[in-house]
């Protein structure tokens, strides 16, 4: 849903979430072209944007999407997306809600890697008189969820899928790409993902399963992937917005970051070399991804756009403390009452605090639209 507004950034109360439509569209196009060159489909992960308007721009021809909550699945279904992969293990209590969406016409793929989950899903599907479509998660080295592609557990889990469940495919997420330091390291994670997920698919196929979908992806690994033979789709998500962390690992440049938090300077402390803004932990989040504060890639809780070296060094609930790296802070540029735009360290978690985007076009201060977001579960 988008409502056209005609006000300016200066009129917005802060903190506010700003989305640069021009940068967004450029990021979306770049990924579509890259994925087309790699010869796979893009099933973008909507966990970052959580916005139907962004999904529409990400997939101008339509297509399947990935979601991280059932609430997202319901919201996007309501906006015309009928091919949905809920890529977080589905707990048994959620199955009736998933089934309700399927009865309304959704193709809803469920994720699992535990035999108990496979059994529960098959039993519930059978009791409800439908077949849940399931994606088995493979661990490619991230160490969060997933089975080893060579493990006996893979075939055991698949064997649990009868009557009320069928195997749609396998997927993996190379979350350890976030610790990568160079294009070669990130390409190596992409190759780990590809090998793990295609090996799992081969084993399942040679045992008699269809395993039509072979899905992988994180933004850093997909961006640096060189060959995706055997993979059918990728699930990048944060590429849409980029953030200071992604710029640090080379998934985008600082000039590509489409999302920022508008904040107001509420204090100057020249004796400490610090400005205070009205965007703190709740407005920016405290997530610094896999950055460490002793790391040269550390960008604190965000970078101030348009004034190189300024970053959010500390946050408390509603206060952000801005310092300058490598030089003196020019206080005359940031009087009390002036506005700053802060590029978040990790955009997914920052955006989660807001129910809407104020959309601008490049450097223009005019707010051209508000786009909603679907938060919660
Ligand atoms: C299962 C899964 N797939 C895909 C993604 C997308 O990764 P990124 O946000 O790096 O694009 C995530 C992100 O957490 C994920 O958990």
TrEMBL record:
What Gene Ontology molecular-function terms does this entry list?
A: D-serine ammonia-lyase activity
Is Cytoplasm set as a keyword in this record?
A: no
- Give UniProt keywords alphabetically: Lyase
Per its UniProt entry, which superkingdom is the organism in? Answer: Bacteria
Q: Does the keyword Ion transport apply?
A: no
Q: Which residues form the D-serine dehydratase-like domain?
A: 258-361
BP terms from Gene Ontology: D-serine catabolic process
Q: What family, per the record?
A: Belongs to the DSD1 family.
Record's InterPro entries?
A: Ala_racemase_N, D-amino_acid_metab_enzyme, D-ser_dehydrat-like_dom, D-ser_dehydrat-like_sf, PLP-binding_barrel
Protein name according to UniProt: D-serine dehydratase-like domain-containing protein
PANTHER family noted in UniProt:
D-SERINE DEHYDRATASE (PTHR28004:SF2), ZGC:162816-RELATED (PTHR28004)
Q: Which Pfam families match?
A: Ala_racemase_N, D-ser_dehydrat
């Amino acid at each position: 849903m988008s409502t056209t507004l005609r006000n300016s950034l200066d009129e917005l109360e802060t903190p506010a979430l700003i989305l640069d439509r021009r940068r967004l569209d450029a990021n979306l196009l770049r990924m579509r072209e890259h994925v087309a060159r790699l010869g796979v489909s893009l099933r973008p992960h909507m966990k970052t944007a959580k916005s139907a308007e962004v999904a529409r721009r990400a997939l101008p021809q339509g297509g399947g999407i990935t979601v991280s909550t059932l609430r997202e699945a319901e919201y996007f279904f309501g906006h015309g997306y009928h091919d949905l992969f809920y890529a977080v293990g589905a707990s048994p209590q959620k199955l009736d809600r998933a089934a309700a969406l399927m009865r309304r016409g959704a193709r809803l793929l469920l994720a699992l890697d535990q035999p108990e989950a496979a059994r529960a899903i098959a039993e519930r599907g059978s009791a409800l008189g439908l077949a849940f479509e399931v994606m088995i998660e493979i661990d490619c080295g991230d160490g969060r969820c997933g089975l080893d592609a060579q493990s006996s557990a893979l075939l055991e889990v698949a064997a649990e899928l009868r009557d009320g469940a069928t195997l749609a495919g396998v997927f993996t997420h190379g979350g350890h790409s976030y610790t990568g330091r160079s294009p070669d390291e990130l390409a190596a994670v992409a190759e780990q993902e590809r090998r793990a997920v295609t090996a799992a698919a081969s084993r399942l196929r040679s045992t008699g399963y269809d395993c039509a979908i072979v899905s992988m992806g994180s933004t850093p690994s997909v961006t640096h992937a060189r060959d995706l033979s055997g993979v059918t789709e990728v699930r990048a998500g944060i590429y849409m917005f980029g953030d200071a962390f992604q710029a640090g690992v080379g998934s985008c440049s600082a000039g590509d970051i489409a999302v920022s938090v508008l904040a107001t300077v509420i204090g100057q402390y020249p004796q400490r070399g610090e400005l205070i803004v009205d965007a703190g932990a709740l407005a920016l989040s405290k997530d610094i991804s896999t950055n460490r504060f002793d790391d040269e890639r550390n960008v604190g809780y965000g970078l101030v756009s348009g004034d190189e070296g300024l970053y959010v060094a500390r946050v408390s609930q509603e206060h952000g403390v801005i310092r300058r790296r490598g030089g003196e802070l020019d206080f005359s540029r940031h009087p009390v009452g002036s506005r700053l735009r802060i590029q978040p360290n990790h955009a997914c978690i920052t955006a989660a605090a807001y129910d809407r985007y104020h959309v601008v076009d490049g450097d223009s201060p005019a707010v051209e639209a508000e786009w909603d977001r679907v938060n919660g579960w």
